[in-house]
Amino acid sequence: MKGPEERQPSEMSFSDKDGHVRREMRLNWWKLDATTFRRAAIGMDDRREELPDVELPTDFRYRESKPVLFGRYWMNGKAKLTSSKAACLDFSVAKEGYLTAYRWSGEGIPSSRNLDYVSAWAP
Question: What is the pLDDT of residues 29-42, one digit of tens each?
């Protein structure tokens, strides 16, 4: 399962890491303010300004009270919480990123104190 996607507006497309042309973009379903194409797009940082700042046709945002831990998003940078109700654990360890885990103890809101990570290049 790879999360929600939306067809890009105006016949936009991009090539993924394997060179395949993609017309759908992955969405930041964990961010409550990700309501427009520009704010919700994942993996289009270098082309974000090309996306219209208009409302998405579908409301895909996570609004449940239980926290969610997820992966398969190849986040960049140091491991950090992605929102108050969701924590991505995929910080690109296979690309010299961080092996990431979350020590959940039943809390309703994820805490950065419970996020553990180690660099892929650590001795």
Answer: 999 999 999 999 88
